[in-house]
Structure prediction request, 383 residues.
Amino acid sequence: MKVLVVAGARPNFMKVAPVMAALAAEGHPAVLVHTGQHYDASMSDAFFADLGLPRPDHHLGVGSASHAVQTARVMEAFEPVVRHAAPDWVVVVGDVNSTLACALVAAKLRPEIGCRVAHVEAGLRSHDWRMPEEVNRVLTDRLADLLLTPSRDAHANLAAEGIEPWRVAFVGNVMIDSLFAQLPAARALDVPRTLGLERGRYAAVTLHRPSNVDDPDALAAVFRALERVAADLPVVFPLHPRTRARAEEFGLGDRLAGVRTTLPLGYREMVSLVEGAAVVLTDSGGLQEETTALGIPCVTLREQTERPVTVAEGTNRLAPWPLSADGVYRAFRGALAEGRRAAGAVVEGWDGRAAERVAAALAEAEAAPGATTLAAAGAAAHG
Ligand code: UD1
Prediction:
């Protein structure tokens, strides 16, 4: 079984690392393609080092651009790589532009080279079409031959869209594989101590969604809330490049009195910071999951979440919408009052072994009769 695995942006790297390792352990070493959607050392190289990822076999170097241009660049550069590698499977993860671009290329090459597409983290839905990630998720799932879900709620979402159940398999959350694997090394780093902070006595913040950071009023409201939080507890805020650029553009650079901003952190540094926090405030999808697994109260700065299991079973709560300084601060106080829980496998399949199930699902689909492929289903439907 020849597998090609795609990674493009920061939240992809912790998902592909365990999948690459599990495939290699099963005797299927995969070809790794990095699209270059994220390229700064702090957004990419640091994660490869921390996660023990091999050097990519192909680096497409697409960089930043508008959605259309970035997606098109990935597609143009990825097509010859797939043609050359002629894999049985193209594995894409998550919901970034690289995910959709590569799924689309592979789906179009399916009749020619017989490759199939597997989507890891399939079936998550925010039901908010203003989010670029929602467009990427829905279209990637429509294109994929094998949809590998991180939580049971994803199955209802896919069924509602008419996705045939034989294309869908539950595997659990590969991101939690990386979290549990790296937790001892992250703890040993002790980032809180390096920053002069007491474990369990500070808040950690991340923010990068266009809906929060590209709108001056929304960003100003969150910054005012963070200043109030900082009056209660030290606040550490690693700044995504997009957020730093917008804060400067909107003249908000000096509006974070008492908040310690840092450059983006590496994977282990971030896990260490989060694991020691009293509360996390974030608009990241990954951090909603990681805080659930670590038992850290999380306030999500979004109107809705595509990860409802983190609210139902985990430690997550949504801040009142639309975001206001008062609403965010009150949500922070509520989360703080709730306190930390013990870390562990609180959600089914978030147990550190999801990538093994990904490798097994791929091998099973590979061995399955040809009827269970989109191409065969299409051929049958059209005689
Ligand atoms: C992307 C993903 C988002 C994910 C996020 C994690 C899409 C549509 N969005 O958003 O789902 O949660 O990554 O970070 O794919 N930049 C740098 N250095 C880098 C990368 C980006 O400076 O290495 C700056 C550039 O100015 C760029 C901006 O950040 O224009 C945004 O980068 P982009 O990859 O377009 O989207 P993200 O906001 O990072």
The pocket of uridine-diphosphate-N-acetylglucosamine is lined by residues 9-11, 37-40, 43, 64, 95-97, 132-133, 208, 240-242, 245 (CB under 6 Å).
